[in-house]
Amino acid sequence: MGIVITAFERSPDGGKGLARDTRVRWALEETGQPYDVRLVSFQAMKAPAHLALHPFGQIPTYEEGDLALFETGSIVFHLAERHPGLFPTDANARARAITWMFAALNTIEPPILDLSNARVIERDQPWAAERLPVVVERIRARLTQLATRLGDSEWLDGDFSAGDLMMVSVLLRLRPSGILDEFPSLAAYVARGEARPAYQRAFAAQLAINTAPQSKN
Ligand code: GTB
Questions:
Q1: Mutation to probe ligand 1, out of 6, 8, 10, 20 (largest number of atoms < 8 A from CB)
Q2: pLDDT digits (tens, 9 = 90+) for 133-183
Q3: What residues does 47 pair with on adjacent strands?
């Protein structure tokens, strides 16, 4: 069996590429791995067959032979480790690329997720209006630090790596908020990521699914 990932049958973003299968597709494209996609509905995600693959009932999952993975960090790490294209060969540079993957997922993504939660899930809470500016300021503080480190470099540490793939993927989620545009160097960094042919292929593949006419069954 080749590689099979799961994705939303219909992403709530309508194909903007913000659902997390896009970063896995991107890693597969960067490493030149062919893959198939199994589309799942929200209902199917919570059913036993999918829960056996993903204990939290989410997408994406990754299957390759008898290996089943969940968590995009783990999936991208797996691909970067097994195939050339996403990790440097030098051991220390590789360790730093892994560090940036963790930084993206553990330091930058959490406040960005807080913003989504504040805007959507917590919107009707009596304290929502007070919380929102606090969350936005926390993001700005992190982006200021990240922009300082990036400086005028093309990528975070030498050549493009899995660390950049993850960081760009995480930052993309901010674009609809307008906050990314407050940081021109980071907006340009994200645009460089999006311009990569592998990203373009990944984006086009998820867009095709999310804009295809829906079956009436
Ligand atoms: N930590 C996990 C990982 O990195 O793999 C998180 C996985 C995750 O949150 N998956 C989401 C999911 O399955 C889809 S990506 N949610 C369904 C559920 O939990 O029931 C999150 C997402 C959803 C929608 C948009 N959007 O519409 O813009 C963006 C991102």
A1: 20
A2: 999 999 999 999 999 999 999 999 999 999 999 999 999 999 999 999 999
A3: none
Would residue 217 count as lying in a domain? no
Has residue 106 been placed in a domain?
A: yes
Residues 60 and 115 in one domain: no
Total tally of structural domains belonging to the chain: 2
pLDDT attached to residue 216: 61
What is the distance between the terminal CA atoms of the chain, rounded to a whole angstrom?
28
- Is 19 near ligand 1, meaning CB less than 6 Å away? yes
What is the value of pTM for the model shown? 0.97
C-alpha distances (whole Å) from 163 to each of 27, 53, 174, 182, 217 are: 11, 25, 18, 22, 41
207 shares its domain with 143 = no
Tell me the HSE value of 206 on the side-chain side, using a 13 A CA sphere: 28
DSSP 8-state class, residue 123: T
91 Cα: distance to centroid of ligand 1 (angstroms): 32
